[in-house]
Amino acid sequence: MDQFYLIVISLAVISLIIVLSFLGIQMNNQKNTSIKFPSTTSSICPDYWSSTINSDNETVCKVPLPNNKNVGALYDSNEDKTNLENTKGYSKDDNTINFNTNDWNDCDKKNWTVKNNLFWRGVNEFSEC
Which residue of 72, 80, 94, 114 could cross-link 118, Cys pair, CB 3.0 to 4.6 Å? Predict the structure, then answer.
């Protein structure tokens, strides 16, 4: 009877090793190195902001009014101007920011969101600065 248990356990261990080896080989062949983590795919505008088309036919981000979600420290004053007015690409006429210019790269967007206490999915998590 003891020999029976020894044979069953040996077969089970050998089967387990074979199955796990097969799964490991399959997972290794399926890995995709082109996918970055965390995701750096972001929307056009920070979370809870809307996008609109300006007079130059460019997509711009409409800045929410104070006391709305995700405005952070934009309306805080700094040297006689708000942080919003110090933002590059800001248009006071229609209260929008154009992030689609050469002035903005991913690191600039991340630094701007951190400085102004905003959340922008895909930008806040960017780690290549």
Answer: 72
